[in-house]
Inverse folding.
């Protein structure tokens, strides 16, 4: 459980990276927002035109959740997106479009709440379970040097855990990436990864693969040499136990193999929202154990503009 929760927050991170400019509202691909974009969005929302990657990326501008927090979008293309672009064309939206640019979600105070479910769909946390929902809050921004690379590191707190994650840029090929540094827990246990484990590459696209990469994972002072790989598939639709649905979700799978130990982690990532569900299983000594097979987003207070 500790392993996958640490990676869960890693998938949210985009702060500290320079990303390509996106013309939000431009779904026709001509580099500007015009009435033609309103028409196309309305057709897509009504099922009269197909949804493309560009429409998913540029057209999800509604609702405006919190202008001051830089939050917009809901992971779907609906008539509300067409209406909001029409309002923008008539100067009825805030001057900064589609919201105030911020670092998502790596600004101190940003938080997200998750609910854990069993593989049968039964809540493990939340009302009636005796266990609170899982809440992460970003804090303690600081640079950190690991394996000779400087990371823009943040600490993330839940009621029982302290996690350290960091976005970085691979010096070998300048890829935008998210790497996991490690974690410490209230019971005194610790984890660290050298070099840090790459868990996601930006921009999030179908067919991205990384590895095999070597990593030494250290748990409470005991090291395990692992070789891990990752891949991204999508976009595709996903429905969460909490009732949220997204039509631009990407599936990220990371797996590692070492002597007598292996793991597989599966995540769902949605632009403007972040991680919405994850699963983790490990095999040690011939025994396979799964931790919280499903983790669904309940609510979030995130700053969400800096996506490619």
């Amino acid at each position: 459980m500790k392993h996958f929760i640490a990676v869960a927050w890693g998938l949210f991170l985009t702060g500290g990276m320079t990303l390509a400019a996106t013309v939000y509202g431009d779904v026709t691909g001509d580099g500007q927002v015009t009435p033609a974009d309103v028409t196309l969005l309305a057709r897509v929302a009504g099922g009269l035109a197909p949804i493309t990657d560009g429409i998913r990326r540029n057209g999800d501008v509604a609702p405006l959740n919190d202008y001051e927090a830089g939050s917009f979008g809901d992971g779907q293309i609906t008539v509300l997106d067409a209406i909001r672009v029409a309002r923008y064309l008539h100067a009825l939206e805030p001057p900064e479009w589609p919201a105030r640019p911020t670092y998502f979600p790596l600004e101190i105070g940003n938080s997200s709440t998750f609910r854990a479910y069993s593989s049968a769909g039964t809540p493990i946390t939340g009302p009636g379970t005796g266990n609170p929902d899982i809440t992460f809050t970003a804090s303690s921004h600081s640079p950190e040097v690991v394996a000779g690379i400087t990371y823009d590191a943040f600490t993330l707190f839940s009621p029982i855990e302290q996690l350290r994650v960091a976005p970085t840029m691979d010096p070998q090929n300048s890829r935008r990436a998210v790497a996991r540094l490690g974690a410490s827990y209230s019971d005194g246990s610790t984890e660290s990864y050298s070099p840090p484990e790459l868990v996601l590459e930006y921009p999030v696209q179908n067919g991205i693969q990384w590895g095999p990469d070597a990593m030494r994972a250290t748990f409470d002072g005991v090291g395990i040499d692992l070789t891990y790989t990752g891949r991204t598939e999508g976009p595709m639709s996903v429905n969460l136990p909490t009732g949220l649905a997204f039509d631009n979700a990407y599936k990220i799978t990371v797996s590692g193999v070492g002597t007598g130990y292996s793991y597989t982690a599966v995540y769902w990532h949605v632009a403007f929202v972040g991680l919405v569900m994850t699963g983790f299983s490990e095999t040690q000594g011939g025994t396979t154990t799964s931790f919280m097979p499903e983790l669904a987003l309940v609510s979030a207070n995130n700053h969400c503009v800096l996506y490619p």
In short: The longest strand covers residues 222-239. The CA atoms of residues 3 and 280 lie 8 Å apart.
